[in-house]
Protein: Vitamin K epoxide reductase domain-containing protein
Organism: Microbacterium bovistercoris
Amino acid sequence: MTEQRTRYTGYGIWLIIASVVGWWAAFQLTVEKIVLAENPEADLSCDVSIMLQCGKNLDSWQGSVFGFPNPIIGLTGWMAVLVMGVAVVAGIRFPRWWWGLFGLGIAGAFVFICWLMYQSIYNLHTLCPWCMVTWSVVIPTFLATLVHLLRNGTLTRSAGAQERAGRLMVWVPLATIVAYAIVIAMAQLAGLDFLGEMSGILFG
């Protein structure tokens, strides 16, 4: 299937929007990390309550999985997404291998934030506001990219499969909402369990 500029403009615009939002969240987390490094006892602007905060996440080993703060990954990674979005809107065509590498990067980001969600909800028992902003844009970006790689011929050579994948893009928002609902349900159930454990410790 030959890529057409008008056909993929919507996807490119989404990449630009997602990258700006994601980069801003990563920037805010980086600032908070610097504040925390200068003063471990500082009250961070994102610390709303014991369960809605980013301080605990940033100060945990999960917050620096690769030996440096996770937000640095966002600062660099989202810039790549921004450049890709601008290129798609501009109608620049990329070879199949390039799209494959981009897809691997997006898939890696999705797997990473899924792991971070699990760690945050079930091990740290917190919800980091800026982390949730990142989650909220990574999920639809992954879904949209998966569909795009199907429709532009990166993942399949079948013209029929590409055509059917093209019709799936309109369902990405609904799939995203379902994913959000699953995360919210997980957080609520985990929150109830955590509150129950705390009550048992305090009053048991």
User: Anything to note?
Assistant: The radius of gyration is 19 Å.
